[in-house]
Design brief:
Elements lengths: L1 E3 L5 E5 L1 H15 L5 H11 L4 H12 L4 H5 L2 H8 L5 H14 L3 H14 L4 H13 L3 H11 L10 H14 L3 H14 L4 H13 L3 H10 L11 H14 L3 H12 L7 H17 L6 H9 L9 H13 L3 H14 L5 H21 L3 H9 L12 H19 L3 H6 L7
Antiparallel strand pairs: 1-2
Helix pairs in contact: 1-2, 1-3, 2-3, 3-5, 3-6, 5-6, 6-7, 7-8, 8-9, 9-10, 10-11, 10-12, 11-12, 12-13, 12-14, 13-14, 14-15, 14-16, 15-16, 16-17, 16-18, 16-22, 17-18, 18-19, 18-20, 19-20, 20-21, 21-22
């Protein structure tokens, strides 16, 4: 039986063949490549009592905003909980249990406990990094990765992914030059690190280098556009560069060919689609019936009551499509949720409900109300989760509402996107 993984962390229940498959799965996961689940299937066929294979399987399901995927991790936890496990593995299982109980802060604490004891636990770092991002904990996003860096070296498997996580946290904290330098270092070690390519897209976005961003993404498509879990999102970044250059038609071409070509129902794809169409609409692009298709994609998520970031992007689609019945239904769901003593209840109270009501007001032409609601959002609006590039949609909407209220003539209002309709 194998006793240690590639970074020297003790493991339970693995065979050499199972460990090899696990390492391939972990490598794919860390670099945002496809195929991790298939490798885990191989690992668990070889060694059904391999605890960390079950743990990685659970984290792949939990580290996102899809309620159904999150719930599907519970049977994985049940299977793993009855297996012989060491202290590190038990802490992972405790973090997974906390996540399933919707207690993300407790999950982050258990993962912090893992990293304090085992700073080279790449999976604990990735899971914690994901939850720092999902909860908008920007300071921890940076500090957590920096705290484990001294324990790592270039010869350890996964080091390039560690650098990519470090680069992303630097970018989100506004250290763009350092972020770019570290991302390029990660790519020098492994050009197939899609996570690092994603960081580069963010750096170009935040430093207003849209032309350079388009060139970079096109020149490096082999690293992110095929066999990765981030292809659609990277195409979203390419489309944003076209929006920044005042090219809505080119952005829509990217939307049609790469973002909504298959009418994906993946939550992450729906989020990107809403955010992009809203920006294109505000730029004056001819969105047409695309809103209707997207609103249909969001409709089954109205009652999830799980993630305020999802709620806001669903509302973008409903308002964009003038699907007022759906918009009002989501507002009613949030009005009930905001009283609950849950994670979603708290974010709905402070951010989700007022943001969604602002979007309805904006769509109906009540710019004064939209401005008041958007301006009242807490300073810590990043608690919605997501990146600066994603959350910027609310700020852009506020600016457009201010522009419309300052120029209220019928002629001007007629050409402004998402114009007032009672």
């Amino acid at each position: 039986m194998s006793e240690f993984d590639g970074r020297g962390c003790a493991i339970s229940g693995a065979t050499p063949a199972a460990l090899e498959a696990f390492e391939r799965a972990l490598e794919a996961s860390l670099r945002w490549r496809s195929g991790a689940m298939e490798q885990l299937d191989i690992a668990l066929q070889q060694a059904p009592t391999f605890v960390m294979a079950h743990v990685l399987q659970a984290w792949l399901l939990l580290s996102g905003r899809d309620l159904q995927r999150v719930r599907s991790a519970r049977p994985v936890l049940v299977r793993a909980a009855g297996l012989p496990a060491n202290v590190r593995e038990r802490l992972h299982l405790a973090a997974i249990a906390a996540t399933l109980d919707d207690d993300y802060e407790r999950a982050k604490q258990r993962l912090s406990d893992v990293l304090r004891l085992h700073p080279r636990d790449a999976l604990a770092l990735q899971a914690a990094h994901s939850f720092d991002y999902l909860t908008g904990d920007i300071g921890c996003l940076r500090d957590r990765v920096q705290s484990v860096l001294p324990a790592w070296s270039r010869d350890l498997p996964g080091y390039d992914a560690l650098l990519a996580m470090h680069a992303f946290s630097l970018e989100e904290c506004g250290e763009y030059a350092r972020a770019e330098r570290v991302a390029r270092e990660a790519l020098a070690l492994n050009p197939d690190n899609a996570r690092a390519h994603h960081v580069m897209a963010h750096v170009f976005e935040m430093t207003d280098r849209a032309d350079a961003g388009i060139r970079w993404m096109n020149e490096h498509k082999s690293g992110w556009a095929a066999n990765t879990i981030v292809a659609v999102h990277c195409w979203w970044h390419v489309a944003l560069f076209h929006v920044a250059l005042g090219q809505p038609d080119r952005a829509l071409a990217v939307y049609d060919r790469h973002i909504r070509a298959g009418h994906s129902t993946e939550v992450s794809d729906l989020i990107d689609s809403s955010a992009l169409l809203w920006r294109i609409d505000m730029l004056g692009g001819h969105v047409g019936k695309r809103w209707d298709e997207l609103a249909d994609g969001w409709a089954p998520r109205i009652d999830d009551g799980f993630c305020s970031f999802n709620d806001v992007h669903a509302m973008l689609a409903f308002v964009g499509a003038r699907a007022w019945t759906r918009a009002e239904r989501l507002e009613r769901v949030l009005a009930r949720s905001h009283t609950l003593p849950t994670r979603h209840g708290e974010t709905t109270r402070h951010l989700g409900l007022p943001a969604c009501r602002a979007l309805i007001a904006f769509g109906r032409g009540n710019d004064s109300l939209a401005i008041a609601l958007l301006a009242s959002l807490p300073v810590l609006a990043q608690r919605l989760g997501g990146s600066h590039a994603q959350r910027d949609v609310l700020h852009l909407t506020l600016l457009r509402a201010i522009e419309r209220i300052r120029r209220p003539s019928p002629e001007v209002r007629a050409i402004l996107p998402i114009a007032a309709h009672a």
